[in-house]
Amino acid sequence: MDSSMGAFIRGLPKAELHLHIEGTLEPELALPLARKHGIVLPYASVEELRQAYEFTSLQSFLDIYYAATDVLRDAGDFEVLTSAYLKRAHEQGVVHVELFFDPQVHTGRGVALASVLSGLTRALEQASHAYGMTHRLIPCFIRNLGADAAMQALDELLAHRSEIDGVGLDSTECGYPPSLFRQVYDRARRAGLQVVAHAGEEGPAAYIGEALDLLRVQRVDHGVRCEEDPALVDRLVRERVPLTVCPLSNIRLKVFDRIESHNLKRLLDAGVCVTVNSDDPAYFGGYVLENYLAVQQGLNLSAQQIRALARNSFEASFLPPEQRQRWMTAVDQYRA
Ligand code: HPA
Ligand code: ZN
After folding, report:
1. Which of 18, 136, 222, 264 is close enough to 98 for a disulfide, judged by CB 3.0 to 4.6 Å?
2. Residue 264's beta-bridge partner residues?
3. Which ligand 1 atom sits nearest the alpha carbon of residue 222?
């Protein structure tokens, strides 16, 4: 590794905009939590659990991800999980995080939304005091549970309106187009929530168009399959729609076969507002720094291109305009 580039990226102020907190559950925490709650996981050791992280598709990942998530049972579990992620992110130069979580996955197995939220917010408030880190909290609807379940989840979330900032859409993409969730998103927008959605990860470019036209999302999570529709790429550039790209995730889930064939650099060169994020770092072999390093090395990105990615991460964030601008200036002026 070019260690001076590593130090440059680590010190560069960055926002992380695509991070599922459940996806930060390292085997080293999952196993003790399973013991604490008397849950038997089909993996005896940290090594065995980590060896199970061989995925062939999004679905093969989701199956193990949901199984492991079952060890998160009380507010303390969510707090420990979130604090560990925030500490790591801080050490990698992340100054602002927009964090996803999956409320339906927890309420569906009897864990109250209030418990989840209290654990997450305690950790986020502590990181704000300890590191000055800012955050937004974005619950995601599980698309394969359908629109009625999403509407019900939104009802419950709106009872906690002051604790959340937006909504997203995740889980099994193919067969569950954004169009199914139009009314849910209409209602979320009326409640003043920010709106994003996963689209164009495994699903076709048309899903990205639907997310923009029907859900009126402000950013697209993943979105890498936009390239299959050149007119869509032009639109993303023209309307400056950000994409939250997750390079190591894309390799692990076989969206691209190797980092050298990832389209991040082409999209950046085309003028798309692309950002680099870790998605589910415990499962995909790296946090945000490792994702930046992977694309820097695999795609031979210059320091200026790395700087542009960090700048985009603030431009694409839901921080107020003056804070966004302040961080973009800090990125421009940063010297390792
Ligand atoms: N895609 C869809 N759903 C998810 C992901 C993802 O990358 N990570 C966690 N849930
Ligand atoms: Zn994701």
Report:
1. 136
2. none
3. 7
